[in-house]
């Protein structure tokens, strides 16, 4: 039996990080300062805290100036908006992200809409969403951007391929569909209300799964030879009491059917922070009137 090629997100992300670090150094020389990436973290969600720590570490290693403002879970929405406005006006801040999820008393849309679109390195502001769907230059969410970079590692050309995205979140599923469409794939989006999701997925040459259900997608959901990008990160405790991170795809059986597949961990995960850093450098270049770097 031939097993699918493993798409190695760690090494592809490391390669991107080398190139972003070189671009950050060039930028530091021309701006006289390091590009600044500011995060706002409200409350203390442990998974978010880990992500924010890893992001700050990676940003510093890439030569960026990271800063994270920790705000209490009971902060008033207006005080959070004032903090965003301060960062919008700060010359040394090129990228702003507000760590999600937010506490329930804060309106997520109001907060996202308050971020300067030119500093919106998560690509969630409606202006950047519109730019993505209309083919204009904007800032593209890091995780789906990472998915496309992984696919390009195994496909010279995605044009004309049948792509299915399982999941339709604003953070992953919808922008992944937009990027695949922009790459000239024929794109279907399926979700929790889709009839026959398994059959829809089995049509796909390219299958991107972003659902948050451990091992939902079995080998019988996959077209032989397809490229499978597993975005899912599901933290579970096994019956033996061991902590595990599982994807949304049942990896071992799927690998026997697919042509190429990402592992979890070590697939999409490492790409997200690398692409976020790339976005910060792109934002810094555009704000300074410099051409976009080519990563
Ligand atoms: P989300 O906002 O919860 O969206 C999940 C999507 O999956 C929704 O569109 C939902 O459909 C759909 N869905 C749920 N159950 C389904 C089912 N049984 N069949 C078909 N579709 C189903 O999640 P997300 O933010 O997109 O994240 C998805 C996964 O990716 C999570 O495991 C998350 O941890 C992971 N993730 C990883 C990274 C990374 O860096 N690797 C980054 C972000 C997210 P409806 O819209 O109909 O509810």
* Percentage beta strand: 15-25%
Strand order in the largest sheet: 1-11-8-7-5-6
CATH architectural arrangement of the largest domain = 3-Layer(aba) Sandwich
Shape: globular
Order of helices and strands: EHEHEHEHHHEHEHEEEEHEH
- Overall mean pLDDT score? 97
Task: Give the SSE map.
Layout: E1 5-6, H1 9-31, E2 36-42, H2 46-61, E3 65-71, H3 77-89, E4 95-98, H4 108-114, H5 126-133, H6 142-152, E5 162-166, H7 173-182, E6 186-190, H8 197-202, E7 206-209, E8 227-230, E9 234-237, E10 243-246, H9 251-255, E11 260-261, H10 268-287
Helix pairs in contact: 1-10, 6-7, 6-10
Description:
- By secondary structure, the chain is an alpha/beta fold.
- The chain has ten helices and eleven strands.
- The protein has helices at residues 9-31, 46-61, 77-89, 108-114, 126-133, 142-152, 173-182, 197-202, 251-255, 268-287; strands at residues 5-6, 36-42, 65-71, 95-98, 162-166, 186-190, 206-209, 227-230, 234-237, 243-246, 260-261.
- A six-stranded parallel sheet has the order 1-11-8-7-5-6. A three-stranded parallel sheet has the order 3-2-4, sandwiched between helices. A two-stranded antiparallel sheet has the order 9-10.
- It starts with a strand and ends in an 8-residue tail after the last helix.
- NADP nicotinamide-adenine-dinucleotide phosphate is lined by residues 143, 166-169, 171-173, 190-193, 197, 210-213, 216, 231-234, 268-269, 272.
Structural key phrases:
295 residues, Rossmann fold, binds NADP nicotinamide-adenine-dinucleotide phosphate, 2 domains, 40% helix, globular, 3-stranded parallel beta sheet, 6-stranded parallel beta sheet, alpha/beta, 11 strands
């Amino acid at each position: 039996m031939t097993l699918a090629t493993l798409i190695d997100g760690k090494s592809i992300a490391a390669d991107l990080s080398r190139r972003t670090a070189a671009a950050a150094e060039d930028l530091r020389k021309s701006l006289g300062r390091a590009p600044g990436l500011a995060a706002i973290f409200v409350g203390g969600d442990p998974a978010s805290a880990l992500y924010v720590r890893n992001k700050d570490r990676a940003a510093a290693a890439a030569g960026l100036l990271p800063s994270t403002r920790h705000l209490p879970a009971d902060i008033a929405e207006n005080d959070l908006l004032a903090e965003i406005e301060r960062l919008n006006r700060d010359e040394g801040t090129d990228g702003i992200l507000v760590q999600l999820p937010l506490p329930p008393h804060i309106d997520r849309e109001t907060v996202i809409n308050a971020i300067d679109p030119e500093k919106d390195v998560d690509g969630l502001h409606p202006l950047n969403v519109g730019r993505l769907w209309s083919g204009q230059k904007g800032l593209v969410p890091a995780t789906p951007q990472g998915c496309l970079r992984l696919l390009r590692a195994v496909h010279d050309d995605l044009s004309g391929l049948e792509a299915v995205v399982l999941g339709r979140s604003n953070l992953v599923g919808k922008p992944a569909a937009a990027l695949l469409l922009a790459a000239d794939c024929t794109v279907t989006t399926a979700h929790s209300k889709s009839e026959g999701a398994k059959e829809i997925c089995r049509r796909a040459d390219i299958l991107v799964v972003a659902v948050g259900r451990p091992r939902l997608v079995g080998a019988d959901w996959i077209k032989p030879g397809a490229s499978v990008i597993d975005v899912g990160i599901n933290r579970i405790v096994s019956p033996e009491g061991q902590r595990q991170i599982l994807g949304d795809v049942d990896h071992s059986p799927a690998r026997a059917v697919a042509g190429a597949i990402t592992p979890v961990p070590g697939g999409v995960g490492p790409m997200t922070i690398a692409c976020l850093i790339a976005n910060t450098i792109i934002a810094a270049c555009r704000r300074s009137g410099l051409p976009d770097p080519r990563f």
